[in-house]
Amino acid sequence: MKNIQKHIFIIGMMCSGKSSLTPILSKKINIPFVDLDKDLISILGIDIPEMFDTLSEKKFRLLESNYFLEHIKNSQYIYATGGGLVLSQKNRLALSKYGTTILLDTPINTIYERLVKDKKRSRPLFKKSPTKNQVTKIWMERKKYYQECANLVIKTENKSLDIIAEEIINYLNQ
Question: Among residues of the chain, what percentage have pLDDT more than 90?
Fold first, then answer.
């Protein structure tokens, strides 16, 4: 792998496939992975919506950021980041400085469909059923940050996770 600076960061909107992709990519290139949301859930013993309710979104983002910035000091990992990680300038700088960042560019319609199918309502920004306008608004607020950080943008529409992983591997081998 020629193009690995240190870590591999997978970024993108909620429901873009970050958590599903990282174990597949990890297995293919033999680099361990970290799912930031799952780590925080494991450490605190509560799910992300509860963290938002208990801490507030602002404090959750600070906790997420601190955990991320400390964890990247460790050996090489593939990271499935939270969708809002890019909202912090410190995090964006770290994404650029400490690894290769891949944006999963998933169509709004696909994200919306996945959110609607999420019966557990595990997305704290949507306490009730999301609307397509809400999803579009979040994308528009974050788009510039995702694109600012991304070394590679992968359009995920109609692609399997294996195909996406292969695209990443091909990029890393350049």
Answer: 68
